[in-house]
Amino acid sequence: MAISRTSRRVAALAVLALAVTACASEKATGGGGDAAASGDGVKTGPGVTADKITIGMITDLTGPYASFGKSLTNAQQLYFEQVNQAGGVCGRQIESIVRDHGYDVQKAVAAYTEIGPKSVALAHVVGSPMVNAVKQRIEADQMLTIPQAWATHLLGSKPIQVTGTTYDIDMINAVDYLSKEKGIKSGDKIGHLYFEGDYGETALNGSKFAAEKLGLELVEQKIKATDQDMTAQVAAFKKAGVKAILVSVGPRQTASLVGVALAGGMKVPFMGSNSAYSPQLLPTPAGPALLASFEYVTAGAPMSSELPSIKKLGDDYKAKYPDAAVDSGVSAGYTAAGIVVDALKKACESKDLTRAGVVTAHRSQSTWGEQYGGTMDFTAFDKPASLRSYVVKPDKDALGGASIVKEPFSSDLVKEYQVPAG
Questions:
Q1: Count of alpha carbons within 13 Å of 234, Cβ hemisphere only?
Q2: Residue 109's beta-bridge partner residues?
Q3: Distances (CA, A) of 106 to 8, 26, 145
């Protein structure tokens, strides 16, 4: 998700304004947890009682990523329900607390102030600005947190787990794919439309690196998240004569870019970051253009995958939420819930369900998630958990509105790239 410099300043002010509250919260909760032994000999702390484990979600249910946030939340509640039906974790039932920030930093800070002291982990936080705003408190509380954002500045924090690839890794893989499979060659120009802020700038780091290595000229167009009409950007790319366009913006901007370009006779491949697409675009006037020329890169298998675990998830989700849209938030949320629960299970084995114990258990896992199509290494928190990306395309007939073009791969260029951390 994107973050502007203004949002970062607001986040910093919000953290400063609530510093006293944060300190009070840490004293009340013991930060990482004043460990107490329960009747079963398991050490516990905030968010864990003798019969209950509380997990928080700070999400977007009313803002620009509302459809994604709803899918995330539904999928995680489904996962926790299934775990509870199977007996829970460590003899305890899981309870979730959900708070909506509407993609507003101050609301996210307030949500953390409210539910942080009650939770052992955060199964998802939507948006880089929101994670930034409470990052110091997450670290002080030693709260295992799964952001639904993939900027490199989120790396480098032991309790914060960025899932899969980061945006720059995806863009390196995307440029390599364009070179090997779309006819882009040394000396060609490629465009990159990106949001200002951490999302876009992380993606740009990757495209710059790959373009330089492959002898390509990169034509940049930076926009704000509030910009909606991409006519001027299309004109700039057309004038420059780009042979392909990378897209690291939101779904609305993607729709405008691809629609305007194709309407103007600009037939080039478009390769998006994972946050650039939503299947909700397909019924709109931009749908035919996206189906014709747009693909995107992502670490997560789409819901149309033939993987047995993904197919079962699709069936379970449709049974539980028959009227809900299915998109990438379903698989992203379900797998993130699985990451948290598996950390809890390993912590239980060590008789330590304190927050610090959960983080330590989580960081001991080096090969997680093969059943979901992308093995992740959680042992090094200053590096992406994976370097492999799927290439996926919009598909109106596929569950989740997308289907696989290329199975997960990692460009040789990635091996040479130094990921900048937090």
A1: 21
A2: none
A3: 11, 19, 18
Closest to 179 (Cα-Cα) out of 301, 274, 271, 259: 271
Predicted TM-score of the model (pTM): 0.89
Query: Cα–Cα distance between 40 and 50 in angstroms, integer?
Result: 8
Give the tens place of pLDDT for each residue, 151-175.
Answer: 999 999 999 999 999 999 999 999 9
Task: State the DSSP string of 259-271.
Answer: HHHHHTT----EE
* Three-class SS state of 121: strand
CA-CA distance, 149 to 65, in Å (whole number)? 12
Domain ranges across the chain: 5-165+306-372, 167-298+389-416
Helix (H) or strand (E) holding 100: strand 93-100
Q: Which CATH architecture has domain 5-165+306-372?
A: 3-Layer(aba) Sandwich (3.40)
Element (H, E) at 118: none
Task: Copy the structure tokens of residue 420.
Answer: 């900048």
Give the fold, CATH level 3, of 167-298+389-416: Rossmann fold (3.40.50)
Q: Give tens-digit pLDDT for 283-326.
A: 999 999 999 999 999 999 999 999 999 999 999 999 999 999 99
